[in-house]
Amino acid sequence: MSKQNCWEYKNCGRNPGGAKVAEMGVCPAATDASLNKCNDGDNGGRMCWAIAGTFCGGKVQGSFAEKQSSCLGCEFFKKVKEEEEGKFKLK
Questions:
Q1: pTM of model > 0.70
Q2: pLDDT digit of tens for each residue in the chain (91 aa)?
Q3: Per the structure, how many domains does the chain have?
Q4: Which helix (H) or strand (E) segment is 10 a member of?
Q5: Interatomic CA distance for residues 91 and 87, integer angstroms
Q6: Which of 33, 37, 34, 61 is CA-nearest to residue 49?
Q7: I want to staple 14 with a disulfide (CB 3.0 to 4.6 A). Which of 27, 74, 78, 87 is the partner?
Q8: Can you tell me the distance from the alpha carbon of 81 to that of 33, in angstroms, rounded to the nearest whole number?
Q9: Neighbour tally for 79: CB within 10 Å
Q10: Position 90 in a domain
Q11: How far apart are the C-alpha atoms of 48 and 60, rounded to whole Å?
Q12: What is the C-alpha to C-alpha distance for residues 17 and 38, in angstroms, rounded to an integer?
């Protein structure tokens, strides 16, 4: 089974070419090349908690410090942490 990026796991449609791009644009997690391959993801797709301005929950989120409590409780965050085990990167 291949590892999913956040937009695939959450099926949010905010990745380039996604169904909901017209509403708010492309999510920064899908385009942040500085985090490409971190936690084995495409761009910031497996580091979304570390990216300011992501669109999780249908609204623009803040910085990691502002969204930390919701991200640490997120099922996708927990899944990535489990899949990456000792190689997991928080930020």
A1: yes
A2: 689 999 999 999 999 999 999 988 999 999 999 999 999 999 999 999 999 999 888 888 998 889 988 999 999 999 999 999 889 998 8
A3: 1
A4: helix 6-10
A5: 12
A6: 61
A7: 27
A8: 20
A9: 15
A10: no
A11: 12
A12: 22
